[in-house]
């Protein structure tokens, strides 16, 4: 039991990342039922639909789960509207994760509702700001992580600096976590747990497109690249993705529509260089879309159901924590 597990009521100190286009109700509920921190991606969901999705998860699991907001994409007003819609639906013991810093109103809304606020940051300065906003847990994202990047430091360097400045903070790391050994090593280095995204992309309950899942399972670390290409809908934020025809092209192609994504019964066009990841309702030039993936993909080699993945990580973690000297020597 680590402070992260104790604070959020988890059996395993592992959070599933709130990945838009991947982390729907089925994945969130299954990870939660397995004893880890399942997280529902709200991303750009309208408030009424967001509340409906939270109710769906709550009906599927009695264990703690979280919802994820992305304030820099939605904007402060829309983020607050999402929270006002979902907080009354979030069961006791639920938590809220924010990708990047929320504003003071959003942070206050979460605290006033009695739910722990988990804030993902990428710099020492943002870690201090998040704690001042009342964050119960910080997720420290290193550059090894897949998806949009909040800083420029590898995860171990960020962990060392934040732990030194904030010795009593509850800290999870994000980037490089795919096995129970990875999790145990992170705890041995001073973390209270971890967050994983790439690990759960291929899960049976993930809403990632089948081609996205296949690519992650077959990829190794050097198949990923940090780029700023996929900026439409989420500008000014570099991201780690799997290499594809666009990342490898010498010249930029026109930003014409290349795909269609169906969400809640409606079709939405997807332009080339969109930040949208391909989901199971996407058709078109999937190979040209952003497939967010961390360097941990080297150790993600199967597409098991989420419960089996969590069970495997737990077994590996428990075995590794019985060998503290071996962990510290790696």
Which structural class best describes the helix and strand composition? Answer: alpha/beta
Main pleated sheet: 8 strands, parallel
Going by CATH, what is the homologous superfamily of the largest domain?
Aldolase class I
Number of distinct beta strands: 14
CATH class of the largest domain, named: Alpha Beta
* Share of β-strand residues: 15-25%
Architecture (CATH level 2) name of the largest domain:
Alpha-Beta Barrel
- Report the oligomer: single chain
Mean pLDDT: 96
- Helix fraction? 25-40%
Number of helices: 12
Radius of gyration: 18 Å
> How many domains in all?
2
- As for the CATH topology of the largest domain, it is TIM Barrel
Unreliable spans: 325-330
Form type: globular
From N to C, what is the helix and strand string?
A: HEHEHEHHEHEHEEHEHEHEEEEEHH
Strand order of the largest sheet: 1-9-8-6-5-4-3-2
- How widely separated are the two ends? 22 Å
Question: What is the topological layout?
Answer:
Layout: H1 3-8, E1 14-16, H2 25-33, E2 38-41, H3 47-60, E3 65-69, H4 71-74, H5 76-86, E4 95-99, H6 104-112, E5 117-121, H7 124-132, E6 137-141, E7 147-148, H8 155-165, E8 171-174, H9 180-188, E9 193-196, H10 210-218, E10 224-227, E11 239-242, E12 257-263, E13 266-271, E14 282-284, H11 306-321, H12 324-329
Parallel strand pairs: 1-9, 2-3, 3-4, 4-5, 5-6, 6-8, 8-9
Antiparallel strand pairs: 7-11, 10-11, 12-13, 12-14
Helix pairs in contact: 2-3, 3-5, 5-6, 9-11
């Amino acid at each position: 039991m680590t402070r992260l597990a104790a604070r959020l009521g988890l059996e395993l100190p592992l959070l599933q990342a709130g990945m838009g286009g991947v982390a729907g109700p089925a994945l969130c509920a299954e990870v939660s039922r397995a004893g880890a921190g399942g997280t529902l991606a709200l991303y750009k969901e309208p408030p009424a639909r967001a509340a409906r999705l939270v109710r769906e998860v709550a009906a599927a699991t009695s264990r703690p789960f979280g919802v994820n907001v992305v304030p820099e994409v939605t904007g402060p007003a829309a983020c607050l509207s999402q929270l006002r819609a979902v907080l009354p639906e979030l069961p006791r013991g639920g938590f809220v994760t924010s990708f990047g810093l929320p504003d003071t109103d959003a942070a206050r809304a979460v605290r006033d509702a009695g739910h722990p606020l988990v804030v993902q940051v990428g710099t020492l300065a943002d870690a201090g700001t998040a704690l001042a906003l009342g964050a119960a847990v910080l997720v420290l994202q290193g550059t090894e992580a897949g998806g949009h990047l909040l800083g420029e430091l590898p995860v171990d360097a960020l962990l060392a600096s934040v732990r030194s400045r904030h010795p009593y903070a509850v800290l999870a790391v994000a980037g490089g976590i795919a096995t129970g050994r990875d999790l145990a090593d992170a705890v041995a280095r001073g973390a209270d747990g971890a967050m994983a995204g790439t690990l759960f992309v291929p899960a049976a309950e993930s809403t990632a497109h089948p081609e996205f899942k296949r690519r992650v399972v077959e990829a190794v670390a050097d198949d990923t690249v940090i780029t700023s290409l996929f900026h439409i809908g989420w500008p000014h934020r570099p991201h780690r993705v799997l290499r594809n025809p666009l990342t490898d092209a010498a010249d930029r192609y026109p930003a014409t529509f290349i795909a269609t994504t169906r969400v809640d019964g409606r079709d939405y066009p997807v332009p080339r260089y969109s930040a949208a990841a391909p989901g199971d309702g996407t058709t078109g030039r999937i190979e040209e879309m952003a497939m967010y993936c961390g360097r941990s993909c080297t150790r993600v080699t199967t597409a098991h159901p989420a419960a089996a993945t969590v069970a495997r990580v737990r077994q590996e973690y428990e075995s590794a924590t019985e060998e503290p000297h071996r962990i510290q020597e790696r």
